[in-house]
Specification:
Structural class: mainly beta
Strand content: over 45%
Radius of gyration: 13 Å
Order of helices and strands: EEEEEEEEEEE
Distance between the termini: 37 Å
Largest sheet: 7 strands, mixed
Number of helices: 0
Shape: globular
Helix content: under 10%
Length: 116
């Protein structure tokens, strides 16, 4: 099983980034997918969730209206489009595959830094 995040980097406040998470080794379409983030000195927090078919999404209040989660089950990939980025969005972003049977898999994380 592998989850490989990409797309992180340094961006100025107000800018945008698109994170990708490519999955392999499991039946991607059967798993809900989540993005978490962890800032230095803080606990990991749930940012966004997308259900298996992609029709239902949920967001943390702190990112609603700015972030959009999506998935392409044909490409085994989940995305996080991040707009209007703020310095407080700086964190390591992780994707997580939620198994329908309990438990799941984590990616290795990608750093997002929002700074001028």
């Amino acid at each position: 099983v592998q989850l490989v995040e990409s797309g992180g980097g340094l961006v100025q406040p107000g800018g945008s980034l698109r994170l990708s998470c490519a999955a392999s080794g499991f039946t991607f379409s059967s798993y809900a997918m989540r993005w978490y983030r962890q800032a230095p000195g803080k606990e990991r927090e749930l940012v966004a969730t997308i259900m298996r078919a992609g029709g239902i999404t949920n967001y943390a209040d702190s990112v609603k209206g700015r972030f959009t989660i999506s998935r392409d089950n044909a490409k085994n990939t989940v995305y996080l489009q991040m707009n209007s980025l703020k310095p407080q969005d700086t964190a390591v972003y992780y994707c997580y595959a939620q198994s329908p049977y309990g438990g799941g898999y984590w990616g290795q994380g990608t750093q997002v830094t929002v700074s001028s």
